[in-house]
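Entry: Non-selective voltage-gated ion channel VDAC2
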Amino acid sequence: MAIPPTYADLGKSAKDIFNKGYGFGMVKLDVKTKAASGVEFKTSGSSNTDTSKVVGSLETKYKRSEYGLTFTEKWNTDNTLGTEIIIEDQIAKGLKLTFDTTFSPNTGKKSGKVKTAYKREYVNLGCDVDFDFAGPTIHGAAVVGYEGWLAGYQMSFDTAKSKMTQNNFAVGYKTGDFQLHTNVNDGSEFGGSIYQKVSDKLETAVNLAWTAGNNSTRFGIAAKYQLDQDASISAKVNNTSLVGVGYTQTLRPASVKNSPVWQSNTTMSTPCTGNEADVCYLSPHLCCDLCLSWLD
């Protein structure tokens, strides 16, 4: 039996079919590069075409694999600084400790998190403590698996209010080409998804959600078809007659261009066809993930 996924990754294959390859209303650019010393740099920027708001971030990462250490420094355009230290497989096999802090010089606001994760065959556990001046918040999750069956539980407890703020559980079944996932959130939100890999080129997914006290049911169908090893097309439709279509083209290894198209009822937008991804050829060590989106 393989190691079960984390609670957040339950039903991930179906989520990816619905979410990846689309990016309506956003222009996003991610650039990654790695220095000869082993330091990794990642910068990203995005612009919302509706609000014209632009945000960006810069991240540097350095790994010492022999000690299981990873150091990460972060900065964003909100002028928030962050530091993350990860220790993995040192204290015990499968145990990962993360220390995450942020500081905003403009407001003086500070935050800190301590995260623990432990994974072995049949079990995947996680416990995070989010520190706050009013009192820490504790987040916990556990997933167990046996012969393809998966069961998980997720909770959050606010010590300042002595109140359980999140109480979720999920059950699923997973094989090589089929996944079934159901979940209940806080006893009021019910959801389920089915993922099926029909062939080497075609993947399909169905998603269903319902909220207690609300008669509306959310339903969607999505599919992804691999045209060849470098190109794929994605499509999805939901019960409100919204249709999404996306085309993804790999220009070269580690460089991807997405061209989403959105159709609502009878109105469809048309993507441009310029050379937006020329930035991918700036450096032999530079790669980017460029997603241009159009929204009526």
